Amino acid sequence: MAVAARRERERTARREAILDAAQELVAAQGYHGMRMDSVAEAVELSKGTLYLYFENKDALCAAVATRLLDTLIPFMESALENTSTGLDAVHKLFQKYSDFTQENPHHFRFALAWLSEGERMDDSTEAFQIYRGRVGDMLSLVVASLKRGQADGSIRADVDPLPQALQLWTSFLGVVMVGLNREAMAQRVPVPMDFEQLVPLHLDAMVRALSSEGAS
Amino acid sequence: MAVAARRERERTARREAILDAAQELVAAQGYHGMRMDSVAEAVELSKGTLYLYFENKDALCAAVATRLLDTLIPFMESALENTSTGLDAVHKLFQKYSDFTQENPHHFRFALAWLSEGERMDDSTEAFQIYRGRVGDMLSLVVASLKRGQADGSIRADVDPLPQALQLWTSFLGVVMVGLNREAMAQRVPVPMDFEQLVPLHLDAMVRALSSEGAS
DNA sequence: TCGATAACTGACTACCAGTCAGTCACTGAC
DNA sequence: GTCAGTGACTGACTGGTAGTCAGTTATCGA
């Protein structure tokens, strides 16, 4: 009996070790650059063993991303303290989100890959269901702040919180996607541009769009 | 002499045939799903021959995307007719862009792949330089309309046209990225949502943010 | 002591972008 | 007419990577 418990602990520890290695490699090489062989080597296991812990590469990455979202969500929640209005809260939530993507660009790239080329990613695994749930939790923070803003009058009354939260999130994704690759983007986009400005500019636009002041 | 001219014509025709095949396959299978072997088979050439016309897969895809942008730009320009104000023009430009992505989702996926995982894409080829130029032309339309809007008073005077055009474009990319995969997204994003609403909602937010009415 | 079980291994398959030595067909000079 | 030169084309091959699976090893309980 105690044996089973110990085995369970060992299994969990090994799983965490794999996640640590995968996370580090994704951080260094990006989602596509991360190789299952490299993960195996890093944890001193054979590649086959990885597949005893994760169904496939995508599931492993989803598990890494889930662990990161477990950090992001409390981080975003901390932004809600000392907010004067719901509108202010929305602004600060996304500010935190932006900070997080700067610290964890690899996580963001994974999320993007999932959203943009999802057809090629196997999201039928349990790991993905859990990940999906976390994304929902994150979006709920935005929805709640939008409602709060409508209650305190800082956000237009005709805003529909759920669709608007998705609009905020998805548009933000696009901006951060480009801002994240700003070094490469400077050569890539054929216009002179300081990409540092982009996120603040977008947040400002979002606040203006939501604000009850000057509403039609 | 005439031989050289004929050879040149034949070469161009073959190049176009390859582009046609590649475009169709990218449309059907997506950027990642398109196989160089499939393109070769479709044009009844060996794979090696493709590499006499295009440096690599990415360059071929960039050439496909360039051809599509050659269609998009006049299409967007046509939106400028019968626009009452610069603000209205910006709105209609993006509306056309949205329409185009619905018709040519594959092109958009390629652009996304380029922007989001650009490190892994070889964008040093000539085909990419040309593509970059087209993206710049497209953005110029937005910049010009923003300036027009400031001149006619429909857009806030404190908007900096070039950064704002990038903010509009990049945020739009995020929204369209999600909207494009709305079938998959319905299961993927853990909230009930009619993704058809998303683009109009975003355009509305952008117009509100740019509008000189109610400006602080 | 030994059969059962879980954990692990690594050589293997399948797949795909890109390469290159060699073939083929046409051309123009002689 | 011949034949060397040239450009177009070929397809078997390389290299790299995700995922598989038959077999090995270690540990456990009876």
**Averaged pLDDT of chain A:** 88
Share of β-strand residues of chain A = under 5%
Please tell me what the overall shape of chain A is.
Answer: globular
Order of helices and strands of chain A: HHHHHHHHHH
**Gyration radius from CA atoms of chain A, angstroms:** 20 Å
Q: How many DSSP-defined strands of chain A? A: 0
Q: Give the domain tally of chain A.
A: 2
Q: And the CATH topology of the largest domain in chain A?
A: Tetracycline Repressor, domain 2
Label the CATH architecture of the largest domain in chain A. Orthogonal Bundle
CATH class of the largest domain in chain A: Mainly Alpha
Largest contact between chains: A-B, 59 and 59 residues
CATH superfamily of the largest domain in chain A: Tetracycline Repressor, domain 2
Features:
Arc Repressor Mutant, subunit A, 10 helices, 76% helix, 0% strand, 216 residues, Tetracycline Repressor, domain 2, homodimer, 2 domains, DNA-binding, mainly alpha
Describe what you observe in this structure:
Two copies of one chain form a homodimer. By secondary structure, chain A is mainly α. Chain A folds into two domains: 1-53, Arc Repressor Mutant, subunit A (Orthogonal Bundle), CATH 1.10.10.60; 56-210, Orthogonal Bundle (Tetracycline Repressor, domain 2). Chain A is built from ten helices and no strands. Chain A has helices at 2-33, 36-42, 47-53, 57-78, 86-103, 105-116, 126-152, 161-180, 182-188, 198-210. In chain A, α1 crosses α2 (36-42), α1 (2-33) crosses α6 and α5 packs antiparallel against α7. The longest helix of chain A is centred in the first third of the chain and has 32 residues, at 2-33. The N and C termini of chain A lie far apart (68 Å). The model of chain A has no long low-confidence stretch (mean pLDDT 88). The interface between A and B is large, with 59 and 59 residues. Chain B binds a DNA duplex (30 and 30 nucleotides) through α1 and α3.
